[in-house]
Amino acid sequence: MSKIKGVLLEKKYLVPFILITSLFSLWGFANDITNPMVAAFKTVMEISTAKAALIQLAFYGGYGTMAIPAALFAMKYSYKKGILLGLILYAIGTMLFIPAAQFEMFGFFLGSLYILTFGLAFLETIANPYILSMGDESTATRRLNLAQAFNPLGSILGMFVASNVILSALDSDKRDAAGELIFPTLDVAEKAAIRTHDLAIIRDPYVMLGVVVLIVFFIILFAKLPKTEHAGKVDVKASFARLFKNRKYLEGVWAQAFYVGAQIMCWTFIIQYAENLGINKAEAQRYNIIAMAIFISSRFISTFLMKYVNSARLLMLCAIGGVLTITGVIFIEGMGGLYCLIATSAFMSLMFPTIYGIALDGIGEDAKLGAAGLVMAIVGGALMPPLQGAISDLGTVGFLPAVNFSFILPFICFIMIAIYGYRSYKIYHEPS
Questions:
Q1: Which residues are CB-neighbours of 181 under 8 A, at least 6 positions away?
Q2: pLDDT digits (tens, 9 = 90+) for 400-413
Q3: Which of 28, 26, 37, 18 is nearest to 86 (CA)?
Q4: What is the count of structural domains for the chain?
Q5: Which pTM was predicted?
Q6: Of the candidates 284, 263, 266, the residue with the CA atom closest to the CA atom of residue 274
Q7: Cα(148)–Cα(158) distance, integer angstroms
């Protein structure tokens, strides 16, 4: 096993790397405090799983809307200005939770999340290629994996807050001695009082998050960040034309869409899967935290392995691992299936930054627009969860509980990712 050469991070980039890497934790927190809200809103707003999953459509739809505008903004101005605008949009979205909770309108919450993710689209579209540009191109994918390793630290904090600050405090999730929800049996006035209480519980962590985002905004504003952009004016039309002719890049966009869809489905519906086993929301979210701890550990292990193993080959092997664990999720009923779902996070950990790095490898000045396409692919996380929710609402599919069968969607996603890893390794000869 030969070691892949190249300096991972030069000393001159250390402080900027740390500052930009902190942003990865910020959007990780937003992602994973929001995933459990599907289950929370389903109960408190008395809506179907499919309608509650519109939270993911709003959240990840913001990426699809704003990724290309973010790239064009960064191309005209700079990475730093794009990051600052992203932080402002992020903060505005969180603060809109105040009127959303006051008016108690599900649609208002969806709009708040949609605007919040305008900011996240700016941050992800810009921060990822910025990290790739901070040094030796031969170690770019490994450097991005290192930066992305701090994303799940924000995620696990978001999960912890969701479980211990939000879900455990929701009056709408209280159960009787038989384990059945009490909320649906209450009269209109009692439900209204509980709804007001619970929406305030959901609102407050987002508002506090907005304050943190504003603090980070001022730190970045006064920080000295290096300009690593390619000099000269970029021809946007020519850049688009080159990207559309780049098969490895285009396949990477599709692979990224499948990956994000798989990730969001696995982490969003772990609560519904556990609830089907008689576990309440707060306790189910703790299983999500375990999954994230596995994800974090695996990310650091994967970054180390990339010193010795081709990244595309490692991607293919991990995708095959995901196919095997999701097979267990579908066909093993009871806690065994839940354990398989938790184990899937070990195989997902390297996928996002590795697909990102492979797809952008060697595209030079097209990286900003290329990054936008890969961030737009996050819309996969918007489209698939409502479909999985609709399948879960069926009750049973053949001899399987519908919530088990719904994981056929992540199963298909991992097959597509394995194909991309194979093609990158064997056909496109990805070098690192």
A1: 43, 172, 173, 174, 175
A2: 888 899 999 999 99
A3: 26
A4: 1
A5: 0.77
A6: 284
A7: 16
